[in-house]
Design brief:
Elements lengths: L1 H16 L13 H12 L11 H10 L5
Length: 68
């Protein structure tokens, strides 16, 4: 918030709202892995859980050897 305020003072509204260029980040999952993750997240959660959490999904993918 502080940086946005400073940018507003320096260059006005357009300058403050302008998003600087960000280098592209490499994908962590390929298309098949991503499809599997989505299918898993849409499936029933593990026994004793109400829903899938990000941590549960990550641990599940590691356990299956899909990711490191």
């Amino acid at each position: 918030m502080e940086r946005t305020r400073e940018n507003f003072v320096i260059g006005g509204l357009e300058f403050a709202l302008k998003d600087g260029e960000n280098p592209p980040k490499p994908k962590k999952l390929d298309e098949e892995q991503e499809a599997f993750l989505i299918a898993t997240a849409c499936s029933n959660p593990p026994e004793g859980r109400v829903r899938w959490t990000m941590q549960l999904l990550a641990e599940h993918l590691v356990k299956l050897g899909i990711i490191d």
